[in-house]
Amino acid sequence: MSERVKQIVPDLIEAVRNVLRDHKVTFDEYRAGFGYMIGVQEAKEIPLLLDALLNSTIVEIENQTRGGTKADIQGPYYLDENYPLVTKALAVRPEDADAEDMIIRGCVTDLAGQPVSGAEIDIWHSTPDGLYSGIHDNIDRKYYRGRVLTDADGHYSVTSKTPVAYQIPNQGPTGELLEKHLGRHSWRPAHIHFWVRCVGKRDLINQAYFEGGDYVGNDCCETDHLDLVVPKIYENGKRVMQVNFVLEPAYTISAG
């Protein structure tokens, strides 16, 4: 990593310096920017700011070398690798009992179309009112998060409640930058997060979006990867999100 740091950091600093030179940034403007970054730190919004502005670029770079299903942004609300293993349903808050039921299902295959059994899929999404467990309003982290395993045919299926479009925190410095200074909005379309892992396969982080949903294609996080916009299908009154993944082989590192 130290060699990569030596490659990247000087170029990054010089790129910033060139922007300052090109726009003839004044000392007062520099100090205002300095103060803004202090405010971001104090508001504990560094992950939010970076993901809102830069995560989609990293995904764009990564997808240049990807076969199979393309990646999408992870977002700042993934917690850790200790998601509970579930077989039928993500845990749902009691107060969400009347929210729309949802089935999340699909199949994981390799590049040759063969099923990938035993793949681990971390799934997480917002509550039906746009909040994340373990992050917002002291919601217990057990809700709307879980890990499923694909069966011998590569299939998985789990039930939950349908998430909604939501605003990222917009009362702090990140929202001020987006809305006041850049003239943008702070909304994300409704989506479901996935992190697919399997021995011998390249990890895949992705999101599935709802066809016809608000802000699909107009995401404040500037993700334009919309291969996984799922058609509006219902079965027995439940919204069905059929989300399939194609995994490529893991990278191999040469000993030479």
What does this structure look like?
With 256 residues, the protein is of the alpha/beta class. It has one domain (43-247): Protocatechuate 3,4-Dioxygenase, subunit A (Sandwich). 25% of the residues lie in helices and 23% in strands. The protein has helices at residues 2-22, 27-42, 46-63, 173-181, and strands at residues 101-110, 120-125, 145-149, 155-161, 166-167, 187-188, 191-197, 204-210, 229-230, 233-235, 238-242, 245-247. The strands form 3 sheets. Strands 1, 4, 10, 11 and 12 form a 5-stranded mixed sheet that branches. It has a 5-stranded mixed sheet with strand order 3-2-7-8-9, with no helix packed on it. A hairpin with a 6-residue loop joins strand 7 (191-197) and strand 8. The longest helix is centred in the first third of the chain and has 21 residues, at 2-22.
Write the layout of secondary structure elements.
Blueprint: H1 2-22, H2 27-42, H3 46-63, E1 101-110, E2 120-125, E3 145-149, E4 155-161, E5 166-167, H4 173-181, E6 187-188, E7 191-197, E8 204-210, E9 229-230, E10 233-235, E11 238-242, E12 245-247
Parallel strand pairs: 1-11, 1-12, 8-9
Antiparallel strand pairs: 1-4, 2-3, 2-7, 5-6, 7-8, 10-11
